[in-house]
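Entry 14. Two folds queued back to back today. First construct below, sequence then structure tokens.
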Amino acid sequence: MKQVILYTIEQLSQVVQNLTQDIKDFSIITLTGDLGAGKTTLVKKLLAEWGVQEEILSPTFTYVNCYKNDQGQKIFHFDCYRITNLNQFLEFGFDEYLNEPGAICLIEWPQVVQPLLDQQLAGRVCSLEISHISNDQRKLIIK
């Protein structure tokens, strides 16, 4: 499955509503794109759509934030930008989050953990790639 969506920030809520249907069968969602492309903005909208009521913060310095939606489902939001290699990810024990029953993992900057995802978790992973088209328009590729 590969889908391409062009959208503006004003259209993001509708895009996220549709996106939740496209990714509902996946427990791991990766987000790639340049700095400022809109990865965290998309995550915030997804979490709100899934019923997370608390404030959503970027895990840039904590590596991972855990949220629960209004049904009690855990959602882990990773930012792997500062993780230097797969061994560091494993040493932190983050691979355990990926296997938590019933949980969803959203991973920004997943390149460092991609070998783990490809080798052990491939059937559970959906990739979202975000890029700038213009100041107010983005392109989202769903794989």
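Second construct, same run, same settings:
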Amino acid sequence: MLEIQELHKSFGDNHALRGVDLVVPAGEMFGFVGANGAGKTTTMRIVMGLLEADSGRVSWDGQPLTFALRRRFGYMPEERGLYQKMRVREQLDYFGRLRGLSAPAARKISDELLEQLGLTEKAGAMVESLSLGNQQRAQLAVALVQNPAALVLDEPFSGLDPIAVDALTGVLQERAREGASVVFSSHQLELVERLCDSVGIIAVGRIVASGKVSQLRSRGGKELTVVVRSADAAWAGGLPGTVTSDGDRHTLIARANGQPVDDQAILRSALAAGHVERFSWEQPSLSEVFREAVA
């Protein structure tokens, strides 16, 4: 288990972290989300020993996170760090040897990772010749080369096409099933909601919400979504909630935050106004939870 307790970090007058607390159990996918400058990268750099916290504690299975323990972690920085003039397979072999693997063991795991990440045909290519998506696949392969106990990934899905996203997510899910702790930052909240067991939302250096994705969504209460077409724009006047319009399509969203919502009255008004395309109670999405948490 990776545990972060009361991390504080300042850069001059800029208080980047203000008491960050996070727990990532073994075998769990953890999404770390926040706006640019919220403190995600600073937190990850402290975990990996690239920055020193002003105060606080980072531990692994209850032990302070030392250099020796960090060698068991796989790290993918936001600024990609591959050697552009090396071939992909040579690079993986090289980092495997740096991690203490024998030459045959490094070659074996390199071949496995190239296949898993769809890079076998690019094994002999120079990194500089690869597309952005393939460079990120190669960077993830480097992070995985020593079969890490934990993965710390800063924006691993940035700029990737859907096929590359599927390739990366499949590998990360497999590593989590094998018992690794996986923490990654992302601005793609729909992807985080789909992949992650838990999430931490950071704003201005503080964790403003954290927990299981299902729990965070349920805390927001249920939302009633009603979509009506061919209705007068004022059809929902006097009804609870907010209305947005897109052409002749009007969407009413009413949230039940401990207060009763007369959904039958809303349905009657919608049916009288026009053609009802949708009428459903749902929990708010992670994107909506995020917007509310950082407001």
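Quick look at the second one. The chain has a mean pLDDT of 90. The first helix runs from residue 40 to 47.
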